[in-house]
Design a protein that fits this description.
By secondary structure, the protein is an alpha/beta fold. The chain has two domains: 2-197, Rossmann fold (3-Layer(aba) Sandwich); 200-230. It contains eleven helices and five strands; from the N terminus they run βαβααααββαααβααα. The protein is globular, with a radius of gyration of 21 Å. The two termini are 38 Å apart. Bound molecules: dephospho coenzyme A (COD) and adenosine-5'-triphosphate. Residues 10, 31-32, 35, 66, 69-70, 73, 80, 83-84, 87, 91, 114-116, 160-161 line the site of dephospho coenzyme A.
Length: 230
Amino acid sequence: MRLVGLTGGIASGKSTVSSLFKSAGVPVVDADIVARNVVQKGTGGWKKIVKAFGNDILLENGDIDRARLGQIVFTDPEKRKLLNRLLAPNISFGIFWEVVKLWANGCTVIVADIPLLFETKMDRWTNPVIVVWVDPKTQIERLMSRDGCSEEQAQNRINAQLALDWKKSEADIVINNSGSLDDTKEQFQEVLKQVSGPLTWKERMVSRDGLLSIVLCTTAGVLLAKKNLL
Ligand SMILES: CC(C)(COP(=O)(O)OP(=O)(O)OC[C@H]1O[C@@H](n2cnc3c(N)ncnc32)[C@H](O)[C@@H]1O)[C@@H](O)C(=O)NCCC(=O)NCCS
Ligand SMILES: Nc1ncnc2c1ncn2[C@@H]1O[C@H](COP(=O)(O)OP(=O)(O)OP(=O)(O)O)[C@@H](O)[C@H]1O
């Protein structure tokens, strides 16, 4: 199985590229969705947040007030570290579980869209790593326009992550999303070819069918050896 890492900076275009993967039939695990699910009302993640940040962090219906929590953690690095530390195990396990489900269904190429792939060192699990890059001016403009936030708020969010240029330097594949959507789609076609190329023998071994073959061959080998010995 090939687990492709897809990352970048906030509003650099990860979701845009992951939609292209989905349209091409490649399954995507979305860490932002996992991160939302693990803090649903009553879950372990929700309890940890309420304990650490107090009842003030809740909306009237008991859900986490994401806008409020965002305001806190994107302006206070210590609070952000605390939130990250609390949720990291839940999020990594959630991502792992989504991958296992796809693996069990026989998927051989899976994309993991993880904004904090490098920050959480999850890049160790993925190969290749795709970084969706955008120039700083376009990034801040798109972020402000999508989230309706001020330049200062947008900059705080950008500063909460490792520098996008550094991520670019660590990437196996870079998609430059500073231009038009068509431009990105064109680059994507090349990336898709690379990512869906033939699996290496190691990747074949860890795919579901590869592992099943190993188990079957080993069992057959043991049975044959036993028969010969008797
Ligand atoms: C702070 C929260 C409540 C803000 O919620 P909101 O709905 O406004 O944003 P959303 O979850 O859609 O995230 C938008 C983007 O913000 C960035 N981001 C989110 N959390 C973080 C973080 N802890 N540090 C840096 N950037 C972050 C990512 O690029 C993400 O794609 C929320 O992002 C959260 O709970 N974050 C902690 C969980 C986490 O680490 N998520 C990232 C998954 S790897
Ligand atoms: N090539 C493009 N041209 C114009 N707008 C774009 C392009 N790519 C993305 N956008 C817009 O920029 C915004 C950010 O893109 P997107 O949501 O894909 O980023 P993201 O990296 O997934 O963000 P986040 O880190 O917050 O999850 C969106 O409003 C999207 O529609």
